[in-house]
Structures are given as C-alpha cells and as structure tokens.
Model the fold of this input.
Amino acid sequence: MARPFIITITTLLLVMWMASSVKSAPMSSKPKVILVSMDGFRHDYLSKVNNTPNFDMMLREGVTMPWIRNTFTTLTFPCHFTMVTGLYEESHGIVANNMYDSKTDRNRFRMSTTDDDWWTGHETIWTSAQKAGLKAGVYFWVGSASKIQGTRPERWFPYDGRVPFEDRVDTLVKWMSEDDFDLGLIYFNEPDHTGHVSGPEGHATLKEVERMDGILGRLLQKLNDTNLLDTVNIIVTSDHGMAATDSDTKLIDLRDYVNETLVANVIQQGSMASLIPQEGKAQELVDALKDVEHMTVMLKEDISERYHYKDHRRILPVLLIADEGWTISENGTYRRLNIPRFLGDHGYDNILSSMRPIFVARGPAFKQNAVVESIDTVDIYPLICHLLNIDPAPNNGSLERAATLLRVPPKFKENLGRVKKNTSEPSKH
Ligand SMILES: *[C@@H]1O[C@H](CO)[C@@H](O)[C@H](O)[C@H]1NC(C)=O
Ligand SMILES: *[C@@H]1O[C@H](CO)[C@@H](O)[C@H](O)[C@H]1NC(C)=O
Ligand SMILES: *[C@@H]1O[C@H](CO)[C@@H](O)[C@H](O)[C@H]1NC(C)=O
Ligand SMILES: *[C@@H]1O[C@H](CO)[C@@H](O)[C@H](O)[C@H]1NC(C)=O
Ligand SMILES: *[C@@H]1O[C@H](CO)[C@@H](O)[C@H](O)[C@H]1NC(C)=O
Ligand SMILES: [Zn+2]
Done:
C-alpha cells in the first residue's frame, strides 16, 4: 500500500526539482552576452523620434542611463576599442582614426589598417572569453580583423560596410543559438553616416534612428524565436554622439596661420588634429596657433589629465581640439567619409553633451524598467567579464560602478578568491 505512494511522492519531487533546475539553468550555468554598437547613436536621439517600439520595449524591460560617459577623443576607432578593452585611449594605443607610429612596420594607420602590430598587447573581451574556454563571434568591431595576443575571434569578417544589417543580425543569432556561442559582438555603421550627411537634427538622421530600431527589433525577435531572448544579456550602446556642423562655413584653415616651416605632418584633422612639428618647432607652432578662434592648441605635455590622453607615443607633440561644430583643415578642403559638405561630426571634447552615446541593456542580469546613474565606457569590459563569469585583464573600468545596472550586486569582497585592484575613480560629472 505504502510503496506506490512513496514512489509517487519521489517522482513528484524529482519532477519538481528537474523543472526548477531547468528554469534556473540558463541564468546560473551558461550566461550569454551580446554587445551591440550602433555607430554615432547620440544619447538623446530617442527623445527626438516617435516610432521606436523596440527601444521602448528594451527600456521597459531593461535598464538605461541618461548617457554613457565616453573617452576622448570621441572618434570611432578609439571609442570602440575602449569598450572592448576597458582601457583609456592612452593605454590601448588606438588614439585616433589616423595615426603615426615610428615603431610599427608601416608608420601610418588608417581605418583600413589591420596590421597586427598596431593592436598588440591589449586584451579584448573576445580574447578574455576565449582564454577562459568560451566561444566568441564578432560581426565587425574595431580590432576584430587583427590578431591580438596571437588570436582573432573564433568568427570574424574583414570589414565591409555594405553587408546588409539584417544579414549581420541573422548570422549573429545563428552563432548564439545553433553554435551555442557565449559572446557575440555586432556593429552597425548607422546612424553615424547619415548623421554626418544630415546633421544630428536632420530628417534623414532621425529616419535612420527609426530604421535602427527596426534592426534592434529583428535581433530581439530572432532571439525570441530561438528561445534565447530571456537568457541573453544584451547591451546596446554606441561610440559617440554627433554635433551639428557645417564644413563649408565653420572651417579653420591652418594655412592661414602656419606653413611648412613649422609643420612636418598633419596626421589627423577635422574635429581635432594631431600635428608633428618640424624639428625643434613645437613651441613656435603652438604660439602661432594659440590665438586662433574656435579651437584650442596644446603641447602634448600640457594635455589635461581628465582626457586620459597623453601617455602614449602615438599621441603626437601638438594637439588641436576644435570647438563644438568646427572643423580644422590643413588646406581648406577637408572631407569627412567622402561627403563633400557635412553637417554633423564628432571627435570633440568628451565633456560635451552632443558627444555622449546611448546605453540600454536587457536580460536576466539587468535591472528592469530602471534608470540608473551614468557609468563610463571603460566599465563595459569589466561588466561583460562579470556577466560571463571570467577574469578581466587589468583595465581602467570599475565593476563597482557598473554594478548599478545589475539585479544582484556582485560580491566584491570574496569574488571567488580573485584578487582585484580597485580601479574606480570618484566620478567627475
Ligand atoms: C516571444 O515569443 C512569444 C511566443 O513564443 C510571444 O508571446 C512574445 O510576445 C514574444 N516576445 C517578443 C519580445 O517578441
Ligand atoms: C611661411 O613661412 C615663410 C618663411 O618663414 C614666411 O615668409 C611666411 O610669411 C609664412 N607664411 C605664413 C602664412 O605664416
Ligand atoms: C587637401 O588635402 C587633401 C588630403 O588631405 C587632398 O586630397 C586635397 O587634394 C588637398 N586640396 C588642396 C586644395 O590642396
Ligand atoms: C589604466 O589601466 C592600465 C592597465 O592596468 C594602467 O597601466 C594605467 O595606469 C591605467 N590608467 C589610469 C589613469 O589609471
Ligand atoms: C573603490 O574606490 C572608489 C573611489 O575611490 C570608492 O568609492 C569605492 O568605495 C571603492 N570600492 C571598494 C570595493 O573598495
Ligand atoms: Zn563612430
């Protein structure tokens, strides 16, 4: 009499235990992370448009902040590399989109340069993940086409901006679902490009923001279709914002003030400029430029500490920073992304509101329907390491700061016996 009853109870308990462990398994044993960058997505773009149901859903079900504090210089390459290394630009060495380095094989770096020696020595999030035995796929990211510490992501592609955004999404979701990847990164070159053409308030730019909402919707829906939506932690952010400019009328022509007797080379120009002076002419060059309106000039050694933009050989002897909306040109005909007359640009001081990017996150680790204090883009790397439960390489970020996003705060003291340096700084803004 008693036996069938005991078996029934045992079976029932077993079923209940199995059900509960199945339910909690994705959160505890196999956390997944997707990091999305929509280039040039200014922090306040969503407030300028009406039709963004997918971002609205992310905000409702996830966590956001007024903006994320990005690094100087607010250019695409440096800012993207900061997100995946947790390092200030002076520490990861990708200090501009165009660079000069006497110690590399080829001295000049342009956005198409993938030579490994520009990227060595700085662990990225995909390297950290793969070192820990996890699988990482990167559908375009600054640095992903080069070997960093001897490895590339398990999946990667040479950059090709023409690949339809939908294809990028579909491939990423396949990696995460069919191939069970732990970490996925994906990059979209909009709304940046349209922002340069039409300016941050331009009709076309705001239309592009709505299109990017549709791309986000596709990602969310495909994750839902593959039963991953509630197990993946998704972070959607960007490298920088966008300021209104006019390259025809707000142009500083350096030829009006200096000539080749002072300047050996102009390596980067536009919203900021990096100059190599002729031998022994650095101070003279600074003196010639110090009264020029709508920009600031400084010797490398005088760059403000708040930029964390000084301590690297690729930061050149003379730095020029244009005032918001102004463009510096060595010869009066500077073009941005081959756009003859551009109405938007970035690269300016990272303290400007217009330079600040968006940040939204959703997933089992994140708070729901919450607006928290701003964190820094250097915090993204230690945050993702925490989400994946792996050890971060030395970095300038702070998990303590990023913890404000999390439902369950990390235990800083024990932390599974890991020794951690407290790298957080008192916040500045
Ligand atoms: C996910 O799919 C379920 C049905 O399987 C549906 O009820 C739900 O609304 C979907 N969620 C999203 C965000 O698409
Ligand atoms: C360029 O340098 C030459 C020689 O020193 C000088 O005569 C000329 O005035 C300079 N031009 C400008 C724009 O400073
Ligand atoms: C100005 O410099 C650019 C390269 O930065 C060059 O392509 C262009 O032809 C130059 N224009 C003039 C007027 O010298
Ligand atoms: C940033 O982190 C790197 C690597 O740990 C370190 O060398 C550098 O000193 C840090 N920078 C600051 C400003 O703390
Ligand atoms: C880390 O340093 C920051 C700033 O000095 C401080 O506010 C914070 O309490 C520290 N965190 C820990 C865990 O010691
Ligand atoms: Zn960018």
The chain has two domains: 32-243+351-405, 251-341. The chain has eleven helices and 17 strands. Residues 2-28 form the longest helix (27 residues).
